[in-house]
Amino acid sequence: MKSPTFSTWQSFLLLVGRVMLGWIFFESGFRKLSAMQPFIASLERRSVPLPTLLGWIGAPLEFFGGAALLLGAWTHWGAVGLIIFTIAATLIGHRYWEITDAAARRMQQSHFMKNLTIIGGMLVLFVAGAGRFSVDGWRRRG
Fold it and tell me: Can you give the residue ranges of every domain in the chain?
């Protein structure tokens, strides 16, 4: 997929946005990979089927997808992987419609909507690409 041509300031803002989106996944994925048993146990508590398998798929996907965005390397694939991850995490962790306590419901609905916004950001990266200041941009120029 050919990326659009951006001015220097647009490329810089794309870099800033890409790093901001990537960091949250990179850092969270690293924490999960560093403590897989508690992460898998949290999936078990939420009645996720095949929690060990899905934990060992989800944590690396989150970590490496975040790394892809941070570096701007294979950005389209990283964005797609993180869209899939975020959809799954949202449906597992932020099922606000099942909560009866009003305050807890509002909090989970807010998290659900935040994740929809993150998915929107990933869609923008998928379409725009990583930009000039990235490994993908460097490979295009080379």
Answer: 8-137
Round to whole Å and give the CA distance between 43 and 74: 29
For residue 53, pLDDT over 60 is answered with yes
pLDDT band at 142 (very low <50, low <70, confident <90, very high): low
pTM: 0.88
Average pLDDT over residues 16-25: 96
* Residue among 76, 79, 74 nearest 25 (CA): 79
pLDDT at position 141 is 79
What b/e readout covers 45-81, taking b as 16+ CB neighbours within 10 angstroms?
Answer: eeebeebeeebbebbebbbbbbbbbbbbbbbbebbbb
The CB-based long-range contact list for 122-125 (8 Å cut-off, 24+ gap) reads 122/21, 122/79, 122/80, 122/82, 122/83, 122/86, 123/79, 123/83, 124/17, 125/17, 125/18, 125/21, 125/69, 125/75, 125/76, 125/78, 125/79
Distance CA 76, CA 91 (A): 23
